[in-house]
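G., before I forget:
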Amino acid sequence: MKIYGVALLAFCFLVGKLAGNLLGSWMGIEGDVGGVGFAMILLILLTAFMRRVSWLEDDTEKGILFWSAMYIPIVVAMAATQHVKAALSGGPVALLAGISATLAGFLLVPVLSRIGKQTEPNPPAS
Amino acid sequence: MEIVEKVIGSNGLLFAFLFVGSVMYASFWISKHLFRKKLPGVALAVIAGLGLAFFGDKKGLADVPLFAGMALLGGSMLRDFAVVATAMGADLSKIRQAGLAGMVSLFAGVTLSFVLGVTMAVVLGYTDVVSLATIGAGACTYIVGPVTGTALGASSDVIAISIAAGVVKTIVTTVGTPLIAGRIGLDNPHAAVVFGGLLGTSSGVTAGLAATNPKLVPYGAITATFYTGLGCLLCPSLFYYVLQLIF
């Protein structure tokens, strides 16, 4: 049943958020540190395990894949609910700080991508 | 007319499904027929979304009563739920392989954003350490800015600037990522993990990657999710003390 997949996803989500909030309070921050990341890893591990012991039925998986496919429309809605006027009304400091930080991040992607990258040629995919 | 408003008002989320569906349909149609798919439909839809956000203020389009349901559909709960679901297609061994690079990029991303934010603030005439730290934190994300500003007791106009800096970063990341992805080698999971750590704005990273190549979304999201927490940890403490030593 598809609801099993949605329930499994919600389980991973809540456990991940809980872990993120616990980590946050442990670090002395009010909020969530890495909750989504923990939830993602938990989901990957759980579904891999369930697939191995053949508990993961097609329908269960479809329940998760539906939400994965809803991701892009959700991003569009998220874009439409941003405080875009603030971006312009923050003045030159906000514009310069935001733009320079973004561009610097872009430029460092190829530099830091070299860390831990397998040296060419890649071994054949297993 | 009143009845229409009443029906939509009490079924806001469902109206948001219909509305976003229509925006996506129009965007994909325009992408196919006007741009011959050179500009991806997803990118167009996201840009259309940002444009629509000008109809409101703090909550963007959702400030318009008819579109209040957009706040739920585009809010952090459903966004994070869907982002976690994208992990179904992710390869754990690739994430593990990029783990070290991801950690380095997280620290580099937070530090670099803070330093650039502070630099811009200095250039434009700010001198007090609290304002500098708050604006630097805002260059990380629009959450790190106000958290840092509140912790340090910054004035509300400086906090507003720090939020604005973070929003600018989100928007530039959203629009810029698909344009620049090819040039910075952002076409594989490894680079996406690094990208998520360097940029760190969950909204910008996930929207930018979705417009570039949806397969990369989970890899960017997995590092970006640690960024705001790390920023909230470092900016009001370590970074603030270092600034105090300098100024």
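The CA atoms of residues 133 and 239 of chain B lie 8 Å apart. Residues 93-246 of chain B form one domain.

More on Monday.
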